[in-house]
Specification:
GO terms for molecular function: ubiquitin conjugating enzyme binding; ubiquitin protein ligase activity; zinc ion binding. It comes from Cinara cedri. This is TRAF-like,Seven-in-absentia protein, TRAF-like domain,Zinc finger, RING/FYVE/PHD-type,Zinc finger, RING. The chain is an alpha+beta fold and about 190 residues long. It folds into two domains: about 120 residues, Herpes Virus-1 (2-Layer Sandwich), CATH 3.30.40.10; about 40 residues, no CATH class. The protein is about 35% helix and about 20% strand. It has five helices and nine strands; from the N terminus they run E-H-E-E-H-H-E-E-H-E-E-H-E-E. A three-stranded antiparallel β-sheet has the order 1-5-4. A two-stranded antiparallel sheet has the order 2-3. A two-stranded antiparallel sheet has the order 6-7. The termini are far apart.
């Protein structure tokens, strides 16, 4: 007798961002993979951002976000798909656009900064705003003149201690890190 195992990845649909702290590593990995696939599917081919509202589809299925459709159609009176140049007709794609919009209103995505520590899920309509202000967004640069490192405040001290042996960290209080570069010379 054959046994079939079914795994379900459930994502809640309520007003608050979902937390993933109670999920197993395997389930979280599945959510991340699905989230990445959904992001790629909802990426506007013109501006390359996550499209929270798809405004038009061509006959070949290429979707373009609302912002880009407005820009493109104001320049191109023939209204061609930017991917394949086939005609785009807003009226013909309304049903699919409505379904895509319904989908984006129900699905949650993992924050793009999850590798830096953000383990929350957000509705598509909310995720861009969250990612703009996410506490885990790597927006702190190392002040060493040739260092290209970019990370978070929480990661800065560890980076400085490991990557720059000649740097002395004086204090870390409320994300205010004071450090000075000490040159060590050997004779």
């Amino acid at each position: 007798m054959a046994t079939t195992t079914t795994r379900t990845v459930a994502v809640a649909v309520d007003a608050e961002p979902a937390t993933t702290s109670s999920l197993t590593a395997e389930t979280w990995a599945q959510i991340e993979a699905i989230s990445d696939q959904v992001r790629r599917a909802l990426e506007c081919p013109v501006c390359l951002t996550l499209a929270t509202v798809m405004a038009s589809l061509c006959a070949n299925g290429h979707a373009v976000c609302h912002t880009c459709v407005v820009k493109l159609w104001s320049r191109d009176t023939t209204q061609h798909c930017p991917m394949c140049r086939s005609p785009m007709d807003l009226r013909a794609s309304t049903a699919m656009t409505v379904k895509l919009t319904e989908f984006t209103e129900r699905v949650r995505l993992a924050c793009d900064y999850r590798r830096f520590g953000c383990h929350r899920l957000y509705f598509v309509r909310d995720i861009l705003e969250h990612e703009r202000v996410c506490a885990y967004k790597p927006n702190v640069e190392c002040l060493a003149s040739t260092c290209q490192w970019l990370g978070t405040y929480d990661q800065l001290q560890e980076h400085v201690l490991h990557a720059h042996a000649d740097v002395f960290v004086e204090a870390t209080v409320n994300h205010e890190i004071t450090y000075r570069f000490v040159h060590s010379y050997t004779e």
